[in-house]
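Structure ticket #2291
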Amino acid sequence: MVLAVALLLTRPVMGASAGESSYRGWNTIELDNGLIEVQVAPDIGGRIIQITLGKSEYFWVNDQLAGTLPPPTGVGPNGEWLNYGGDKLWPAPQGWDRDDQWHGPPDPVLDGSPHAGAVLVGEGSPVSVQLTSQKDKRSGVQFSRVIKMFDGSSRVGIDSTMRNIDTKPRRWGIWEVTQHNAANPQGAGHNEKMWAYCPINPKSIYARGYNVMFGLVNNPEFKPDYDSGILRVHYERMVGKIGMDSSAGWLAVVNGTVGNVFVERFSYYPDTEYPDGASVEIWTHGPGRWVQSGEVYEMNDDPIECPYFMESEVLSPFADLQPGETYSFHLDLYAATIGGNYPVLDCTNVGVTCEQFAAKVLGDKLNLTGRFGVFCTGKAGVVLLDAAGSEVANAELDTVLTPAQPCVVSSDVEVNVPAEAATVCLVVIDATGKQLGELARAQIKR
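Resolution: structure written out below.
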């Protein structure tokens, strides 16, 4: 065996389907392909309330509100935010000082009122579900999302659309907010192996590559690694928020205790204006103080009032919309198993790198090492390139890859290595022999 991959799947892989279901007492629309399960809850603000890979649930869900529905007001009895958890869509920027800022949460319409939910395609690849919000007079917009699931992949594609339903121009960004469960899965307290990783823009407008938006300026949770170009965020149960003008197009959240990763991939648009000057924002929920509209707020350590979660947030650029116009933004979500508490060093459309890929010629074999989480089922393969980037050799490896297990490269490949071969690419190949994408590449050492 060339790659060490366990082949014990928790469920049989099947074709994708979408239909009516239930989750935690809510009526939901379930998308399922045998690898992942996605629960969409139209009645509670149009949330994706949960994504599950194998036995691992990724999103935080508010136990205090499980199974309950918002009242007609869309807010709690004292006007408070009904934070159900999961993944939701908001307009950006957030703020309470001007009319061109979104004053939520709470928001009685876009966040707190039922959305219309419908299955567009129930069988095949991809299956799809549509969510449509009510019309919000205050922001002047209506949101809709088409959520797609594909066969043989943990990819969830989301096309979000914002429509100006007002009689005057409106200017907002689309803001995807995902809440991750940061409670200790093995006992009380928070998960000490909860991390987020996002590349720092080498041309960032921020001196440190990120901007502190809430909480302590020197919050120790935010740990830039300028050698690797990655900002690491370690959840340490402190309130804080940062924004990044990240240009790499990916953001990853690792639960090291259970050994899985959640990834968001998106397009970055240079030379455009973003809400808050950020394409990515990360919120860590916990005790502490922050300033909002000139007022000082403080969160206590009560786990009921201050639950354990972290938010990964992706923003679109501003869209200037005339009445009736729409703007759409695409985002892909992925889940994978990495087998422990490992960093995310890089990300492609087929997986993440957690230990650097390396290649060395040993006699007539090519020794490969590395650790990855993969987003799709298939086999591993190698492609050798010369210094000009032309293919000079390739080999398909008799190894099954799946999001349900980590991909650990730790052995030798019997492949002809021409003298002109300079680089090796590790690729994922589907059942038809088609290359789905490149996991990583490395210079060949001799």
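Closing remark: The chain has two domains: 3-337, 349-445.
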